[in-house]
Amino acid sequence: MSEKPRVMIVDDHPVWRDGLRNDLTARGFEVVAEAADGGEAIEVAREAMPDVILMDLQMPTVSGADATRLILEESPHIKVLVLSASGEEADVLEAVKTGASGYVLKSATSDEVAEALVRVGAGEPAFTPSLAGLVLNEFRRVTGGTARRPEPTLTPRENEVLTLVAKGYTYREIAEKLFISVKTVQNHVQNILTKLQMRKRYELMRYAIQKGLDRVPD
């Protein structure tokens, strides 16, 4: 498994937080902070500056979605992985629109949560498989599925990487397909984001799908 990110847990159920903290600590993650609701999360995140926030959605005072939006406006380098009992379409899409990098159900295994944290910490999206299709379908609906070529400002290699991103491949899978390192893939993605004047990975995926790259044959 790749380098583990520093984690902050946000959930209004103390027993759940305790169990999650103990499990992550046993797996080698550093849990740097906790919060019991969205409002507290905003304040604590300023001080703790975690790599990834494991965020519940349904909480008193300030919701997880609102907290995610406000935290990322203030600290865009922090990544948010939603861990929620809800698999409702509206909740998933709202979380993505606020800037969350991933969404995992609380019914997921400990291994799946740990893997999602590492992926999000490395700059990759991470969604429970059934929810990944939902997010892609929404991007297609919003963009109308327009199939056009990528902008000519991208290099051939960047176009290859972007096409594989659109198809939902992980950075490791892209690296294996292109015979390059994961770090090189991450650098390509960052260069693409810079060229397209984007900040979020979900914006990049939406752009790629709008260009029809998810339908380009391998």
Offer a few descriptive terms.
single chain; 218 residues; alpha/beta; Rossmann fold; Arc Repressor Mutant, subunit A; 2 domains; six-stranded parallel beta sheet; 10 helices; 6 strands; 12% strand
First-residue to last-residue Cα separation: 27 Å
Structural class: alpha/beta
Strand content: 5-15%
How many DSSP-defined strands?
6
CATH superfamily placement of the largest domain: Response regulator
Q: Which of globular, elongated, flat, extended, rod-shaped describes the shape?
A: globular
Radius of gyration: 17 Å
CATH fold-level label of the largest domain: Rossmann fold
Can you lay out the helices and strands and say which pair or pack?
Elements: E1 6-10, H1 14-26, E2 30-35, H2 38-48, E3 52-55, H3 64-74, E4 79-84, H4 89-97, E5 102-105, H5 110-121, E6 126-127, H6 129-143, H7 156-166, H8 171-178, H9 182-195, H10 201-210
Parallel strand pairs: 1-2, 1-3, 3-4, 4-5, 5-6
Helix pairs in contact: 2-3, 4-6, 6-10, 7-9, 7-10, 8-9
